[in-house]
Amino acid sequence: MGIAEDIKHALKLAKKTDNTELQQKLKYIQAEVADLLKQLKNKEKAMARLRAALSSQENFIFKDSAYYLTDEKRRIKNGPFCRQCLENEQIKSLLVQVDSPIQCRIKCPTCNLTFDSYQLWDYLNERK
Ligand SMILES: [Zn+2]
Q: Rounded to 5 degrees, what are φ and ψ at 76?
């Protein structure tokens, strides 16, 4: 039985008594525990993201305003990934070309980061 269920059970028992102070106290504890469990869950998620980032970090290179994944011989094998998404959210979001009169506009479909780069535009063109 988890702690949330234990408290629920204790609250049920307390309601059978006339001790309102005890009931209030248990309700307070119930809210506190719910909050702590939520925080713990968020921390676990953040840890998982950081671990994923760390395990692949050494294989990333930063070039022309974007990240690329490389193999052991530092050859590019995937990318370009949005720098903002990778640095802030540890998400690998592939950058795309934007149709615009300026033939160098690059955009991230995840966070909508938009910038101009001839190098990236050419790189994406070559891979088409
Ligand atoms: Zn992004």
A: -65, 125
